Amino acid sequence: MPDELHETFNDDHGTLRVGDVRVRVGDSLHVEGESQVRHVSAVFGRPPNAHAACRGSGSFPLGPVRWRLLPPGSTPWVTPVASVAPATARAAAPSTAGVVPRPLSCGLFAAAAGWRPAGELHIVGFDSAWTAGRTGALTAIRAADDGLAVAAAPAPCTFDRARDLIAGLRARGPVLLAIDQPLVVPNATGSRPVDRVAGSLISRRRGGVQPANTSKAAMFGPGAPIWRFLGEALPTSIDPRVRPDAPGSLWALEVFPALASVGLFPEVQAAQLLKYNPVVRRMFSPGDWLGLTRVLATIAGDLRIPALVAWARRLELAAPTKALQDEIDAVLCALVGLLIQFSPATIASVGDALAGYIVTPCPPALRPELRAAAARVGVLCTFAAAL
Fold it and tell me: At 51, is the pLDDT very low, low, confident or very high (cuts 50, 70, 90)?
C-alpha cells in the first residue's frame, strides 16, 4: 500500500530487499533519511525474498532499512510518517520465557560415535557475511582417532580471520570447509539453476532464496570479498565431485543452512522452515529458536562433543541476537560438513562446479522431491556415491 512504512533487512548495496511487499517496475519509493525519490527499474526474486533495483540512484544502505512506496506526486521528506523502532532494537532481546519449543528431531548423527578418520582432519563451518565490512561466524571441529572435538568454538568471524584460521588448520591435516555462500556464480543476472532447485523446496515451506548473480557487485562482482578469500585461501578443490585427500588439502563446498534444515529435520520437511532470525520479526519464532537450540544440543550429544552441547545450552537460555543466529548457521554448516565426510549416503549434490551447486543433506524421504525439482530445472542431482 502506498505511503505505508516498511522495514526490511538489506544485504546488498545494488538492490533493496522489499520482501513480500508488492513492488512493480515504474513505482517510486523513498528510503528514510534520504532526500531523493528512487524509481524502480527492475524487480528480482519472489516474495518473501524479492529485491528492487533503482538504476541511477546510487547504492542502497545495508542492514535495517525503512522505506515506503510513494503515491504519485508526493514529497517524501515532508510527508509525516509514524515512528517505527529500528529492527535491531525491536528484536534485540525477544523473550523466550514460557515459550513452548517447536518439536524437532534428527536421526542422521545416531552413528556418530563410530566416526573415525584415517588421520587428523578438520571440518570448518563458515557463515560468511557475503559483503565487505560485515561479520559472519565460524566454527571448526577436529576429527581424529580419539573422536570429535571443538577446534574453534562458534564465534563471530570475518573473511580475513577465516582465512588465517583455515591456514593454521591445514598445517595439521586436510580441511573440509562448508561455507554458506555461493562459490560459483557465472551468471550476470537472474538466478543460478541450482538456486531455482533450492527455491522449489524452500518456497513450498514458506521461505525464499537469495538469487546469486554478478550484477550484485558487493556480493559477487569482481571485487567481492568471496573471490579474494578464495584467492588467498587457495582451496585444493571447490568441486563436490573432486574430493582431495592429500595432507594439507582444502576442500571448499557451498552449503545452504535453510535447505539443509529440510534434510536434517523431518518436522521441517513436513511443514515449514524454521524462523530463527531475530532481526526480522516475521522471520522469528521464539518456539523455533528454542526447538532448534535444543535439537542442536541433542546432536552435539550424539557427536560426543561436550563443548558444543554447552554452547547450544547457552543459546537456549540467551536472548536471541543476529550474532547468535550467525553462530547457529555456522554450526549447521559444520554439521553438513561432518555428514559429507563421514556419512555421504545422507548427502546430495545439486548442480555442478561450472554453473553452481549446493551440497545438502537428503535422507531417502526427501530424494523424490529433490530429484523432481532438479529434473524440472535440468540440473545434475547426485546422491552419495559421487561424494
Answer: confident
Closest CA to 182 of 223, 140, 226: 226
Mean pLDDT value of segment 208-230: 94
Report the pLDDT value the prediction gives residue 91, as an integer from 0 to 100: 38
| pLDDT at residue 180, rounded to an integer | 98
Angle at 153 between CA 225 and CA 323, to 5 degrees: 55
351 vs 232, 270, 356, 381, CA distance in Å? Answer: 25, 24, 6, 6
- Are the C-beta atoms of residues 126 and 333 closer than 8 Å to each other? yes
Distances in whole angstroms, Cα of residue 366 to Cα of each of 109, 348, 371: 17, 10, 9
Render the burial of 218-241: b for 16+ CB within 10 Å, e for the rest: bbbeeebbbeebbeebebbebbbe
Domain ranges of the chain: 6-73, 112-383
Q: How far apart are the first and last CA of the chain?
A: 49
What is the tens place of the pLDDT at every residue in 3-40?
678 878 766 667 888 888 888 888 898 887 777 889 99
Cα dihedral sign for 93, 94, 95, 100? negative
pTM (predicted TM-score): 0.77
Least confident of 15-29, 133-147, 277-291, 340-354: 15-29
- Decide if pLDDT at 183 tops 50: yes
Neighbouring C-beta atoms of residue 33, cutoff 10 Å: 10
